[in-house]
Specification:
heterodimer; A: 569 residues; alpha/beta; TIM Barrel; 3 domains; nine-stranded parallel β-sheet; 21 helices; 9 strands; B: 136 residues; Rossmann fold; 19% strand
Amino acid sequence: MAERRAKAGRLFNEATVETIRKGVKQWEENVFMEHPRMLPESKSDFQTASGIPLKPLYTPADVKDADYADQGYPGVFPYLRGVHPTMYRGRTWTMRMFSGFGAPEDTNKRLKLLLEHGETGLSIAFDMPTLYGYDCDHERAHGEVGRCGVNVSSLKDMEVIFDGIPLDKVSTSMTINAPATVLTCMYAGVARRQGIPMEGLRGTVQADMLKEYIAQKEWVYPPEAHLRLVRDLMVYCTKRMPLWNYISISGYHIREAGSSAVQELAFTLADGFGYVELGMEAGLKPEQFAPRLSFFFNSTMDFFEEIAKFRAARKIWATVLREKYGVKSPRSLLMRFHTQTSGASLTWQQPLNNIVRTTIEGLAAALGGTQSLHTNSFDEAWALPTEKAVEVALRTQQVIAEETGVPNVIDPLGGSYYVEWLTEQMEEEAYKYFDRIESAGGLLKAIKSGYMQREIAENSYRLSRRIEEGKDNVVGVNKYAIEEKKPIDTLKIDFKAQRSQIQRLEKVKKERDEAKVQAALAKIGRAFEDGDANSIEPMLKAVMEYATLGEIVQVGREAFGTWREPLIL
Amino acid sequence: MEHRIRILVAKPGLDGHDRGALVLARALRDAGMEVIYSGLLPSPEQVAQMAVDEDVDVVALSLLNGAHMTAFPRVKKQLAKMGGGDIVIVGGGIIPEYDKPKLLKMGITGLYGPGSSLEEIVGHIRERVRKERRGE
């Protein structure tokens, strides 16, 4: 695809490259190869975390075909060097810490604390019953209410979470997928109660159902049904909530599930193209919705590979959108992304070491040009984080932003022979995966047959074996391990949330107008049955009547059925 | 010849975090055990049913959603009710230190977290089967 662009000119001329090539050969034979006789290399295979073999040294000879047009300038196609012309010189990344636990009151308190500490965007974690669309009083919710996120059963809970937080002054990211339509309606509902027009609401719902089947595995209905709901959300928000980012296309969970950086990059972008096609099939122009698609990546420990991944991602997205889907408006070609440091990289052994890991991962995200960042807390391999641990995590990225000088120059690693070579490798490997997905019958078919799921499980086992065999080292785990007894204090969540949530839900059900609720639910059912209808407006009406999350999701179960995953093992 | 250990790897609850369970299932298979995987989202009672139906020696429970203090004991209780009280139960996931004594007292052992050695887990399971199921 690159051939169609005007060339800026090769970075290195033929003669220079030839001289360097000879120089490298001489160096290898006379200096490098001589040396190991005294000090052998410490490993038999040097490779990136994705398994890309590494040479000892990179020079212009490794990027000899590089044309500067492929890298370009910040804010200019193909955006390899950054999506904004000024990047962090204009404004550093948004510091967005994911939080939520217990009852809505607990989360309201934590959100206010974070705002006080200088956080600039809210991000809400929900508990498992909410994520799977069960109310707190459902049998399946027993023991899980408020355990790893906040519980939301009705609009009332959302009113409490955002009590005293004016929704026109903040942007809110909600990590919710299967019931994303319902939670979007609830957020709009809170705004309506606060007297704020929904046109001005800023925020994000994840609503990336494709990666649910690939990695996070929190679904309710079969893939086609969930995609139809995502389509409804795209169409509705494009018209009514123009600042709402309705899909956050997520590689984070793909990576946490055990994928490599290459797989994270390839599967996430493939999902992204899937949503572009979904929007186009619904009659929207990519220019109408592409600016509302954002991405969410992982940043883990192979520092340079992560940076290369971020750079390659921007370029692939812009290139494919322009060349394959004919998108012209520059605004629609920008890949904006949120990054979270890797939870899976945290160890329960010697947990304070996790502060160092998070720092390195956060730094990679900044060098990769992220738009927002969540830094994990050091105690998260043990439990949900304490306030103290969250504060250290937020301070970690504040130190990177304020003290290191990293934000002063855009894409400061651009031009590193190694980073440029690795960026190209990531790009090439991603395109190979696009072809493999195509051969597996296209995205939806590949997902339904479990192709990506198996690829990830294989890689995850490979990584575990490498640590087990000492090929990869994790400090405190398979190297420098020590006996330790309860090294930190952790957050304890009591079961009060379950009781108080059930009480509130009972009260809500007693006080609402039951006839109106039932009528509103029936309307949602009719919208679900009609494939051409849009289900968001009826859902918003039902939410405002205090129909519960569980009731609305159940209407869908009756219309669409449920889903059982393909066999992965 | 030694009887092969039959083991059910299960996630008894609303929890899609299956990385650990899938890695463990492969490791147990490589260690020569017969592995059955529950798939996602069974209830604790359904997990107990599977264990009895499949006539396993061991149930390995994995949860990373914080619900282990309710879900693990529910599996144990249901197993006892269904005549599977002699099935060995081990567990793992994100299990805070303060929850461990209670689970251990119930005979739910292991309680491994992220970064645990697969070899150690395999060894622990073999040891419990040897002592409790083979009467050694």
